[in-house]
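Our preliminary data section would be incomplete without showing what the modeling component actually yields. Below, a chain of 118 amino acids is followed by its predicted structure, encoded as tokens that our downstream tools consume directly.
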Amino acid sequence: QVQLVESGGGLVQPGGSLRLSCAASGFTFRQYAMSWYRQAPGKERELVATITSAGGAGGTTKYADSVKGRFTISRDNAKNTVYLQMNSLKSEDTAVYYCNAALFIAYWGQGTQVTVSS
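Predicted structure:
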């Protein structure tokens, strides 16, 4: 059974930091590109960051322009976990953050809420 379980969300003040984790099971994690998406109230889900699989491009990362220089995606293939380090958080980063695994099929986690507010 495929599972993606996000954790690490919460309430943080503007300028603060959070680290999200996504623990994967039920598929060959290292073969999948892993991504973080987010969805704010009343908005469409958007891609935040992607890290490629262990082979090929070897963990190449890409970021949405809105988070470049503030967020860092990484993966630990030994732990079947992908991370999103979020620094210098802004109110506009408030959203539900979803973990995604993609190869020939896509899997989604249940999401974790991130709220940036003073």
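The chain is about 0% helix and 50% strand. The chain has a mean pLDDT of 95. Preliminary results of this kind motivate Aim 1 of the renewal.
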